[in-house]
Amino acid sequence: MDIDLDSMSLKELKSLQAQVAKAISSYEDRRKRDALAELEEKARELGFSLSELTGAAATKRRAAAQPKYANPENPSDTWSGRGRKPRWFDAAIKAGKPAESMAI
Q: In which element (H, E) is residue 78 found?
């Protein structure tokens, strides 16, 4: 693969640089995933999990919260009751609507 860098414009060189950086990052990520899979397989063969051997706690993913409230004006706009209250919910409460009236 011969690339004549001297004949390329600055825009082409910067594009090439971005492509190379992305390829390097992708390559490193693949290598890390392969190494991790290999280590997990070896640990499994020995009757352990990798987290047991390294002392790292297994990460637990939190399940997405189910929606509890729906916007009366747009039912596809929902809120689970967790986190910051959406504007439509606050506006409805300030207008005197009870939260139960917006419950799903």
A: strand 78-79
Residue 104 in tokens = 């799903």
Question: Residues near 76 by Cβ (< 8 Å), separated by ≥ 6?
Answer: 70
Residue 60: CB partners within 8 Å, gap ≥ 6?
Answer: none
The whole-angstrom separation of Cα 89 and Cα 86 is 5
Distance of CA 39 to the CA centre of its chain: 24
Coil, helix or strand at residue 46: coil
| CA distance between the termini of the chain | 60
Select the more confidently predicted residue: 28 or 56.
28
> Tell me, what's the pLDDT at 55?
79
Report pLDDT digits (tens) over 35-88: 999 999 999 999 998 888 887 766 677 788 899 999 988 989 999 999 999 999
User: Using alpha carbons only, what angle is made at residue 67 by residues 66 and 73, rounded to the nearest 5 degrees?
Assistant: 165
Tokens of 99: 């939260």
